[in-house]
Amino acid sequence: RKYAMGIVKQAEAVRNWLDATFPWLGDEYVRPPIIRICANLDEERSYFDGSGDSWMSPGREIVTHKDSGSGALSYEFEYVKRRIVAGWFADKDRALSLYMPDWLDGGLRQYLGTSRLKGSNLEFKPDDWERERIREANKKGELMAIRQMLLASPEEFRFSNESQAASLLRFLLEGPGRGLKESKTFLERYLKAVREVADEWERKAEEERNKAASEAKEGPKTEEEEDEEFKNRGRFAQDWAAQRKKFLEEVFNRAFGGVKDADWAKMEGSYKQSVS
């Protein structure tokens, strides 16, 4: 019970933090998930056998297992918190969740996933993995600038860059960025722009899906037709990669189109100093 309550308290703290940090995303109800804690990893694996869609079920389950060796530092604690973040945004704003930029999606999960409960509040400190990735990026000259991160495509934003995204959030939410006039409302402006552009793109996509459904032909009947359909799927994936870049640029311009170069330079300099 003590272990289970440790999981639950941290999950509730993450939900409360999200509610308090993003009140301007509206009052859409966010369903509390069911957290299922298996006795060990083998039991968790057997539970998932044939039921890998549990996350999408109406009950919204998060399945984990008891890993008391590391206590609150266990990855299972982090995993639950990361799923809480994903579920919160999925309920709060579906389009925003679907179109969430990679840097912000990965950054929020790393930032909140590695948080620790101190009393009734969350304490945010980077873990060893994040600190090591930042040291390596500084050493190799691979630390991304803020604007570069915001405009990075999925291919350009590798998993290892989650550490840089989390460091940017630390700068904005609890570091020097909180006191800078140029970055005080940075995250609010950016998320609102993501939501606005996502809503517009989702409406357009729905119109295109409806049009395609009305013009749909029968499935391929020959090998040549199957080959052509396969090629079209590949082209669609390539088109989406290009469209994703366009989406990020549109969001960036919507949020920060009027920001002067001098203001960007001030933010960039303060951020790089904070992670050096």
Summarize the structure in words:
The chain has 276 residues and is mainly alpha-helical. 62% of the residues lie in helices and 6% in strands. It has helices spanning 2-21, 41-48, 75-92, 94-98, 102-113, 128-140, 146-150, 162-173, 186-214, 223-256, 261-275, and strands at residues 34-38, 61-65, 116-118, 121-123. Strand 3 (116-118) and strand 4 form a beta hairpin.
Compressed to H and E, one letter per element, the order equals: HEHEHHHEEHHHHHH
Roughly what is the average pLDDT, rounded to an integer? Answer: 85
Quaternary organization: single chain
Count every beta strand, where a strand is a DSSP E run of 2 or more residues.
4
Which geometry do the CA atoms define?
globular
The helicity comes to 55-70%
Report how far the terminal alpha carbons are from each other: 42 Å
What's the story with the biggest beta sheet? 2 strands, parallel
Strand order of the largest sheet: 1-2
Strand content: 5-15%
- Which parts are unreliable, with pLDDT below 50 for 5 consecutive residues or more? none
